[in-house]
Amino acid sequence: MMFLEHNYTIDELVKRCRAGERKSQGLLYKQFASKMMGVCLRYATDRMEAEDMLQNGFIRVFQKMGDFRGEGSFEGWVRRIMVHSSIEYYRKHHKMMQVVEESEMDEQGVNPVAVANLGAKELMVLIQKLSPGYRIVFNLYAIEGYSHKEISAIVGITEGASKSQLSRARTILKEQIAKTEGKKYGYAG
Amino acid sequence: MQDREFDDVFRSKLDGFEAEPSAKVWMGIDETLDEKSRKKAILPWLSIAASVLILVSAGILFIPKKTIPQQGDNRIVKAQHAISKPKQETAIKTPASQTQIAAVPVIAKPAVHHIKKIEKIVAPVVQPTEVIAKTDAPKTNEQLVLAVVPQKQQQVTQPVVPGNDTPLAIKQTDINNTPDQQTKPALIAQQPTPVTKPAVTAPPKKHGIRNFGDLVNLVADKVDRRRAAQLNDDDDDESVIAEVNKGIQRIKKEEKAER
Question: Is residue B10 within 8 Å of A143, Cβ to Cβ?
Answer without folding.
Answer: yes
